[in-house]
Amino acid sequence: MRRFSIVGDGRYLVAVLYLCLAVCCYSQDIPEDTVTTEKLKQTVLAWADSLKTFSGEYTLSQTTYEYDHATEQMAEEDYFSWETFLEEYTLSQTSNEYDHATGQMAEESYSSWTVVLRQAQDNYYFKIENNSDETWKRRVETHTRYNGVQNYYSQPGFVNWPSHGVSNITDEEGLHYPWGFYLMPREIFGERQDYSLRDVLAQGRSRFITKNDHYILSHSNPQIQSAVDITINKDNFITKIEWVRRPSVVSEERLMAYWEGDVFDLRRKQTTLELKDYQHINGVSFPGSVIKTRWRVNESAVVESLDLYENEAISKDELEVLLLTTPVQAVCVQSFSLTNASINEPLSKEDFAIDWPEDVRIFDGQNMPQPGERIPDIPAERGLWFYMAIAGVVGLCILAGIVFYYKRYL
């Protein structure tokens, strides 16, 4: 039997020990982070993909702000409050419009709406009804889309003013409102105007940090120029989604020479969604309360940074650091509060159809008047008096013919 040799076999033993040590070090420094990052990504994607259809009741309130750029003072401009229901929800708004010429707040106005929302993939039924105490402001608008065909209905608030609708619209893709104007469930679950949360996480770089007993999954996708920071608590609930601007991987490493803080803070917030009060509805974790904040940069600070660069006081890299870390200000805050909801229940074609009133005038979307063309007059209603007048005219013509015949031939 061959005996162990310290001189000969010892070299192999040392080599094996070094290899084991290297593997252990690698396992602690890299795979653990990679596994945790992937686990967080899968948690986020499973939740983001769980919402298929939605009909629910919730309240939505909004405050928008306008800034006096000379003093950077913030003036409250608008306040909205929407109460959304499974079949209807109420919206209310108080508007303080800012007079830019005098710098004074304009007269306050108040409005309220009732809204109906049903949505499944690209099909939707969206109705807004103004519930103002002033009759002339009461307006109803309904937008629907089913299998690519849209319909629109409008009922003006003016008394005896005819309502109208447009059917068979095929040349438009979505709602007539700007994307994100109303906070809706699909946006809460990470959808953007041109891509979903899954699209963002499909490419690029992910990393995570632990902060205040929460995990933050930070992901940058240079292919679609999007970056998002997602906060997850220890119970695997998403508590915050922040759409941000971050530098590329190459420029980030270079810019850190001019940034003394954490690399995670080298960013500029654009939109923040804060989620809490989760409810389990039909197997889906749905946040009962959401606050959405849209941010804008402090323009005075941006101007100061640009002046420094133009005067060659700072380099281009230093300018980028300043622009990424310039303080931001809330320009619009929406608060969403869920009352009840129906999640992932099947919706039929009838759920996306407009119940047209009998007196509504409907235009064909494929044969609409062109801009500048006169809309045809509404045909007069032909009741009993109309037909009696026709009969009277015909009778007079017959009588005149008889009189003419007797005078000429008799």
Distance between the termini: 154 Å
By oligomeric state, this entry counts as single chain
Which overall shape is indicated by the principal axes computed on the Cα atoms?
elongated
Average pLDDT over all residues? 75
Helix content: 10-25%
Largest sheet: 16 strands, mixed
Low-confidence stretches: 1-35, 69-111
Rg from C-alpha positions? 33 Å
Q: Give the helix/strand class.
A: alpha+beta
Order of helices and strands: HHEEEEEEEEHHEEEEHEEHHEEH
Kindly state the number of beta strands.
Answer: 16
User: Which percent range describes the beta-strand content?
Assistant: 35-45%
Helices, by number, come to 8
Summarize the structure.
By secondary structure, the chain is an alpha+beta fold. It has 8 helices and 16 strands.
Question: How would you describe this protein?
Answer:
By secondary structure, the chain is of the alpha+beta class. It contains eight helices and 16 strands. The protein has a 16-stranded mixed beta sheet that branches. Helix 6 runs antiparallel to helix 7. The protein is elongated. The relative contact order is 0.12. Mean pLDDT is 75; it is low at 1-35 and 69-111.
